[in-house]
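Researcher: Quick test of sequence recovery. Tokens follow.
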């Protein structure tokens, strides 16, 4: 149990450090601050989202397919987050966390944590979760953080319309994302 807690704390601290650390070289260094959508209707955002693509990251290396996130609004206005995937060995992996909005009731900036609730007072356990692109129907979204080190494209369905996806990719490229790093996620039926 103690080693698991240490691992959770290490993950949270690493995420926070990477999200607030310096931008690497290349084209991203010349790009300005990352913009978000103007407003987020959090209750409308709730439900299941399927991972369509992502920047590869070390904390999802065991996930092989069927990656999804389920968001549910709690009575205290926080959000329960359940991330799931099928691992390479066929087992289901599930991580339960929490999210909170940063700013006003329409803010597209959230913070998420997967550390135990009793560590919520520690700033390092919270990572940025910014909604940077979202279609008007709340069907296709891109989520990142200020330094553009993480990126997820999520959809309400396991498969996405190719035209809508291509248009989203074009917008992400204009925001300074390197599309060569994007890895398409596998969804099995």
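Model:
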């Amino acid at each position: 149990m103690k080693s698991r807690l240490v691992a959770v704390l290490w993950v949270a601290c690493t995420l926070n450090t990477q999200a607030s650390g310096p931008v690497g070289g290349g084209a991203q260094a010349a790009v300005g601050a990352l913009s978000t959508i103007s407003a987020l209707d959090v209750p409308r955002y709730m439900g299941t989202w399927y991972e369509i693509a992502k920047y590869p990251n070390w904390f999802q290396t065991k996930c092989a397919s069927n990656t999804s996130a389920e968001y549910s609004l709690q009575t205290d206005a926080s959000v329960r987050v359940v991330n799931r995937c099928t691992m390479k060995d066929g087992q289901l992996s599930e991580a339960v966390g929490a999210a909170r909005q940063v700013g006003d009731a329409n803010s597209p900036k959230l913070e998420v944590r997967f550390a135990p609730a009793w560590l919520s007072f520690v700033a390092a356990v919270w990572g940025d979760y910014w909604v940077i692109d979202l279609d008007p129907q709340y069907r296709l979204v891109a989520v990142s953080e200020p330094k553009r080190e993480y990126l997820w494209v999520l959809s309400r369905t396991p498969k996405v319309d190719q035209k809508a996806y291509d248009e989203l990719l074009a917008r992400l490229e204009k925001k300074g994302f390197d599309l060569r790093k994007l890895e398409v996620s596998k969804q099995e039926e």
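The two ends are 35 Å apart (CA to CA).
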